[in-house]
Amino acid sequence: MISQKEFLIGQGIDQYSSPEQIQTAKKAYRKTYVKHYQKEYNQSTKRVKMTFNLREFHLLHKAALKHQKPLASFGKECVLAYLQKEFIVPDEESVHSLQVGLNRIGNNLNQIARWANSSRGDINKGDIKEIYRM
Predict the structure, then answer these.
(1) pLDDT band with cut points at 50, 70 and 90 for residue 119
(2) Rounded Cα–Cα distance for residues 124 and 15 (Å)
(3) Which residues have CB under 8 Å from 108's CB, separation 6+?
């Protein structure tokens, strides 16, 4: 697409043209520009219309609110994440709390392994039940 200046020069508009001629030429350029932009946009994107029943809509809407995203953007993100076998993470705080929980589980497993190794193989069913209970 050519620039507005190039368009005006091509139309024979210069600094000595009347203000009305300049405004008319600028409107013509804008119309041409928008038409070119829409053609390019329509070739590079596709619109999809989806229908949900009320239950599905409420589920999607609730999840979009939880992630603080617009419904359409969130729906698109969900579909693409599913196709690419990825996960959508709500926020950094949730990730951090999961990380803390996993670290605690790892610490507990290490303590159990250390205890089991220190008892030199003298583990009975009662010990296992006690570990399971804890």
Answers:
(1) low
(2) 98
(3) none
